Structure prediction request, 480 residues.
Amino acid sequence: MDTSLGFYGSSIGKKMWMAVTGIIMFLFVFVHMIGNLQIYIGPEALNRYGHFLHSVPEILWPVRIILLACVLVHIVAAVQVWYQSYGARGPVNYKIKKDPAVDYAARTMVWSGPIILLFIIFHLMHLTLGSVYQLHYTANGQIDVYRNVVSGFQHPGIAIIYIVANLLLGFHLYHGLWSLFQTLGWSHPRFNHWRRIFAIIFAYAIAIGNISIPVSVWAGWVH
Amino acid sequence: MKLTLHIWRQKSPDDKGGFKTYHVDNLNRDMSFLEMLDVLNQQLIEKGEEPVAFENDCREGICGMCGMMINGLAHGGMKGSTTCQLPLRYFKDGAELTIEPWRSKAFPVLKDLIVDRSAFDRIIQAGGYISVNTGNAPDANSTLISRDTAELAMDYAECIGCGACVAACPNGAAMLFMSAKIAHFSLLPQGQVEADRRVKSMVQQMQQEAFGACTNYAECEVACPKEISISAIARMNHDYLKAFWPGKVVGGGKHVA
Prediction:
């Protein structure tokens, strides 16, 4: 009986790493979305929040490093899991194949994932590094988070990128937030019907919460 | 009734293979799908042609041999039914059916609709033995198992190893088969000593075969002629994690402390 493979050696172990890193990134994205909604309170609230987040480097940098590690592990494991299935169908494919159970979100995980990665890079270049356009600063020399967000979303191209990316994030979470229960073995007839409801609630909450901001800027409600 | 069949014909594992079209008339709508293929083969034999090779044995849905893809659905897609249990009345008179073997790198086609499923046997072999006393059969009720647990184990034990889960999975993964076998044993008190070793060893064997990885499409659950739930996969994953959880004897099933 050969048991030398090790935990990460199987696709089950890889997917558990994907699930755990996915949960961490989901929690971050959810809190990030809630924080962003302060834009509706006004410039002072959002700027105070933004400066607060940057005020303690001893917290900021560990959080950034953990998130970056999660992104890397999630992607490496995803590519390895995808590669295992690549070609598993064999030399000849079906002439007719129906997939009655597969939903759109599940089928497009392999596309929504890389596109979200590109978006994260764009998002960091836009609002953190300021390499998309010159960032705005307040009178006392601090970064004007509110002004940067509003002026960015007034640009239709940038707004569309944010809207599309968050739609895909919603799809990604719709499958991922349900899938993680299966992967981690959290299954019981008592709560199984809640797993899909949980995924739907948070996928919608994050997508709608984030997309509402560029839409509000466009509509002129936030300016 | 009449049917038009597009059937995959392949002489040998090395043959390229291709579809051939056959027309079968005068069919009884209460025939099973395999009886229909018997009728077709009789016609082919009378014409001096090579009959369509397909695997079958019990013809009552318990041996797991007769799997084939019918119009893109494993076993034809009738809920909880194998190909041999599928009656022709499930299809419309005059229907056109495309019949293909399972497509999986781990299941090479041997001839026509027959594939080599010995990868499944190797996974079962990797499961190894369980420690029980030999001798007379144990007294009834000497090992107590709650009714719910026994029923659930029985649900998973229904797996007939037909390979429909692999055939239906867009990733070509064998997780439903794997998990049905693993969950069936992990629920019962017999063989608990080997539980951790068993799940590790079987998963390792699966990894060495050419199966894909699970992405929770749940296509297997729909295709399974025994209607085994993907809750089996969650249970296997749980057992796999448990087997690697710190504080275990390597390869063993008991906590150190």
Remarks:
- Chain A has a mean pLDDT of 94.
- Chain A touches chain B through 50 residues (CB under 8 Å).
